[in-house]
Amino acid sequence: MVDALNTALRRVPPWTLYILAPLPVAWIYYLGLTGGLGVDPAKRIEHQLGLWALWLLIAGLAVTPLRRWAGLNLMRFRRAIGVITFFYLLAHLLTWLVLDVQFQNVWADIVKRWYITVGMAAFVMMLPLAVTSNDYSLRRLGTRTWRKLHWLIYPAALLGALHFVLLVKGVQWEPVLYALVIIGLLISRIRPASRPGWGRITQA
Amino acid sequence: MAYRWTNTLTAEDVTPYSTFLNRRQLMAGMAAGGIAGALPMAARAQDGLEPNTFEEISNYCNYYEFGTGKEDPPRYADALTIDPWTVRIDGLVDKPGDYSFADILSQMTLEERIYRFRCVEAWSMVVPWNGFELADLLDWVGVQSAAKYVAFETVLRPDEMPGVSRPVLEWPYVEGLRLDEAMHPLTMVATGIYGRDIPKQNGAPMRLVVPWKYGFKSIKSIVRMSLVEDEPPASWNVANPREYGFYSNVNPKVDHPRWSQATERRLGGGLFAKRKPTLMFNGYEDEVASLYDGMDLQKFF
């Protein structure tokens, strides 16, 4: 079953993800413009794009555990997933900036409101990752440095989860669930030193 | 009572001196005609209020007993039984007792009030409420002189309210007002919107409306009012006292840890609606500022 899936996926070129990626954004904006998102379309778009960024973040973090525990090889798609995650994060951030707060008190928001501080920190951490997600940067930096740089995705993911938890009023289960999933995915990639045979993780 | 606030404006009012306001816009909150007359035209235009539609008002609600999403209450509130409805009025009153909603209505004068509604989440609407002044109800039951506050409680029915299975807040939802706030002519108990019965998701059959305070003070589906001597608990204040004060007056100068309160998004304007400056006491400064004379509003937020 997994083998068949791996074989089938081998025929899918990763660039198809880049073609598909803008479609949900376009759809969400189309709904917002045509009244399909209710009374407060700006907030809904902002939240939907933020959720997409979290889903993609989780998808990207799931690649290694899926290969290790289920034998499913999505490594070829990981770079595309990462770049698209950043694209959604950027769309989320721009929607907040332009349609929600409308450039008012932006700096004050970033320093004073911890959920925005945390979200912005995650964005800043992901910026160099997006910029270096290409073969040229990988060669330029060398695999070791590049890989170390891309460890930033782990704190960024935790901050993204925290952003959601802090953002809601009161204690709500949905953001806590996302945080638990992300923490679980991070734990699942810790390799116990005592267990040989896990091999080196190859980077896409 | 000092004076009775009268709503001189209705949705049919036309603003005749302006070419850029459409016919549904109206002046609201300008209780005193003299004040409105003294203002330059631009200032009046800024205050032109267009009520949100019934659909907007009834499809975007914070009523966490039915879920934390804005569309959860319209989806689930239908399950709430509102007939029969009894309100217990107790504490320091002359005529304590369990009053049926019909009994209360039979004693009250219903009127329309078009008020700004400002949520602490920095969005706002304009709502044409129907209801009566809370002061009339309190006068009817007789407030004793020792009473200093009014405590309110929302109905709690786990069978009918899917949201209360989650500990987002302590249930039942409770709120409170200082007695002078409760007796203020602007403070009303709403039983309708646009002349129709108030939708369940908006707090049927009767809810509080305190237009100069953030929306969460205007407690929904009231089953109990107690006249008390000490400041009663208020749900959001209990949940997070650093963020939600007991007073929670709309104040653009008092920042909230989550949202800048300097401006607001008036809902209903579509995707590209501009933010508007938030007005002191939500535009009711002339009417209510004197309630807080000498109080540090940064401290008592």
Please, could you describe this protein's structure?
The complex is a heterodimer of chains A (204) and B (301). With 204 residues, chain A is an all-alpha fold. Chain A has one domain (2-188). Chain A has eleven helices and no strands. Chain A has helices spanning 2-10, 15-20, 22-33, 41-70, 78-100, 106-112, 114-131, 135-141, 143-150, 153-167, 173-188. In chain A, helix 4 runs antiparallel to helix 5 (78-100) and helix 8 (135-141) packs across helix 9 (143-150). The two termini of chain B are 26 Å apart. In chain B, strands 5, 6, 9, 10, 11, 13 and 14 form a seven-stranded mixed sheet that branches. In chain B, strands 4-3-12-7-8 form a five-stranded mixed sheet. Chain B has a two-stranded antiparallel ribbon with strand order 1-2. In chain B, strand 3 and strand 4 form a beta hairpin. Chain B has one domain: Sulfite Oxidase, Chain A, domain 2. The radius of gyration of chain B is 19 Å and the shape is globular. Chain B has 301 residues and is α+β, with helices and mostly antiparallel strands. Mean pLDDT of chain B is 88; it is low at 13-46. The chains are: A mainly alpha (204), B alpha+beta (301). At the A-B interface, helix 4 and helix 6 of A face loops of B.
List keywords for this structure.
heterodimer; A: 204 residues; mainly alpha; 74% helix; 0% strand; B: 301 residues; alpha+beta; Sulfite Oxidase, Chain A, domain 2; seven-stranded mixed sheet; 9 helices; 14 strands; globular
